[in-house]
Design brief:
Layout: E1 2-3, E2 12-17, H1 22-37, E3 45-51, H2 58-71, H3 77-87, E4 88-92, H4 98-114, E5 121-125, H5 132-141, E6 151-155, H6 163-176, E7 182-184, H7 192-202, H8 205-208, E8 216-224, H9 233-258, E9 264-265, H10 267-280, E10 289-295, E11 297-299, E12 302-304, E13 322-328, E14 338-344, E15 351-358, E16 378-384, E17 388-396, E18 404-412, H11 413-417, H12 425-434, H13 443-457, E19 464-467
Parallel strand pairs: 1-9, 2-3, 2-5, 3-4, 5-6, 6-7, 8-14, 10-19
Antiparallel strand pairs: 8-15, 10-13, 11-12, 13-14, 15-16, 16-17, 17-18
């Protein structure tokens, strides 16, 4: 494949909306600081935090940020203090009305003038999804959709609540921003292990030549979480697992696993192939979908509350905390190969993985011998935790008697490279500076994904209960029964 050259990184202003929120505290501020400490940001840059706290000013914001970095265990006190004082600014909003945005535009111009910045701006919307449209329109009305340099707007997931809202949001965004300016974030795409899926497939002829219906029997994609809703009941009661994980994270893994070889390693070529996958998925029937909701259970000797017992959850809630799907991709590469998608909260353990089950030998060569038939080869791609690969294969056990034994070849990132893998936000921020949209989601992708799952949003049946701490409802096993398979819980 041809690798596209990236644009040079220029000076810029990061305008971070929701600057005192959870995402800024846990991910964004530490990512910006670590990029700065690694000399990966432009020589000239500033960070302007924006939040609904008119009582905060530059000094208080710097003190807050320094404490966030300290809590994350990053650098020493003097390094943190110096960086915050030299790079951070703050602009408070009263009610996020037109006057606030006019004041913001004035403040941005002042910072760019005083710090000799070229007018390049990153507008990061770390905000609740219900205010995306209002924020986009307010930015445009204040003249902040364009600048003397480039302007790029980052929008966090979820992008829309259903197909209609996603289409409406795209229309509103495109009223003021070109698609080339828009970066829809799915942080899974920035994980090293997800990016390595492309290297694994397209950099190794051994696997890519076998990546088709002739050699693969089935594909499983799992995003399992051991935690519950963790204080996010207000959001989760409106979203559920289908909207929260399937429509974005799992769908992105699906497209990267199933897509054809792109013409080049650039955003346009990769987006094109991912969209083709989504357009090729057949409608998902009710018999190919299982929804669940965790009930009271236990793990390692400790009791776990059910979803309906969580604070803020309705006592009769029918929100799904588990989804399992069987998908069929109707194209030459994958015709007849089932793709199984699964996600859930309060499952046995945290695990994100892709499991490829290869077809067995066409002839039962060893049937005349007194030994078990060979197991099918499995390739497990672990995205988190314990990131790496695991390939199972059959060997003869030593001895006179002919006996087959299953062995594993393993690769682990931690063993090979030592350093801990980043959460991905560092990569995303650098890509925005370079104008590289490869790891971001195109408008057509969001709409194609919502179109695929839209019928499932209108389900009438209640979710199947499953004990907290388990692998989900037993009904999910039925999705694989026709092919004689089982879920891989490696």
């Amino acid at each position: 494949m041809i690798v596209a050259a990236k644009s040079p990184v220029e000076g810029c202003l990061f305008v971070m909306f929701g600057a005192t929120g959870d995402l800024m505290r846990r991910k964004l501020l530490p990512a910006l600081f670590q990029l700065a400490q690694g000399d990966q940001l432009p020589e000239r840059y500033r960070i302007l935090g924006v939040a609904r706290d008119a009582g905060m000013d530059d000094a208080r914001f710097c003190a807050w940020a320094a404490q966030v970095l300290a809590d994350a265990g990053l650098a020493d006190e003097e390094t943190r203090r110096r960086w915050c004082a030299s790079r951070l600014h703050y602009q408070g909003f009263v009610d996020a009305g037109a006057a606030d945005y006019r004041a913001l535009a004035t403040r941005i111009a002042e910072i760019e003038r005083s710090d000799d910045l070229p007018g390049n701006r990153v507008l990061y919307l770390a905000l609740p999804p219900q205010v995306f449209t209002a924020t986009i329109n307010a930015l445009a009305e204040a003249g902040l959709a364009r600048s003397g340099g480039w302007t790029r707007v980052l929008i966090e997931k979820p992008f829309g609540h259903d197909l209609a809202s996603a289409c409406h949001l795209n229309v509103q965004v495109h009223r003021h921003f070109d698609e080339a300016q828009v970066y829809r974030i799915d942080h899974y795409l920035a994980k090293e292990t997800v990016q390595n899926l492309l290297a694994f497939r397209f950099g190794n002829a051994l696997f890519e030549s076998s990546w088709n219906r002739e050699h693969i029997k089935s594909v499983q994609l799992t995003v399992a979480e051991a935690i519950g809703v963790e204080g996010r009941a207000a959001y989760y009661e409106e979203a559920g697992a289908l909207r929260d994980i399937v429509q974005n994270h799992l769908t992105q893994l699906l497209t990267l696993t199933a897509m054809e070889v792109p013409a080049a390693f650039d955003a346009e070529s990769i987006h094109h192939e991912k969209i083709k996958v989504l357009r090729s998925v057949l409608p998902i029937g009710s018999d190919a979908a299982v929804f669940g909701q965790y009930a009271p259970g236990g793990q390692s000797g400790r009791p776990l509350a059910g979803y309906r017992e969580e604070p803020g959850v309705a006592a009769d809630s029918t929100v799904d905390t588990f989804v399992a799907l069987r998908l069929a991709i109707e194209n030459w590469r994958w015709q007849g190969v089932p793709f199984y998608l699964r996600t859930g909260k309060r499952m046995t353990r945290r695990s994100t993985q892709i499991v490829i089950e290869f077809r067995g030998p066409p002839i039962a060569l060893f049937r005349s011998l007194d030994c078990r038939p060979p197991h099918t080869n499995l390739l497990a791609i672990r995205l988190q935790p314990d990131e790496g690969f695991d390939l199972s294969f059959e060997v003869k056990s030593p001895g006179d008697h002919f006996t087959l034994d299953t062995r594993h070849m393993e690769f682990r990132y931690a063993e090979a490279f030592g350093a801990a893998l980043s959460a991905g936000y560092e990569t995303l921020l650098l890509d925005v500076l370079e104008g590289d949209q490869t790891l971001f989601v195109h408008a057509e992708e969001t709409e194609a994904a919502w179109q695929l799952y839209e019928p499932l949003l209108r389900r009438a049946t209640p979710p199947h209960p499953y004990p907290a701490g388990s692998w989900g409802p037993a009904a999910a096993d039925g999705l694989l029964a026709a092919s004689g398979g089982t879920w891989s819980n490696r």
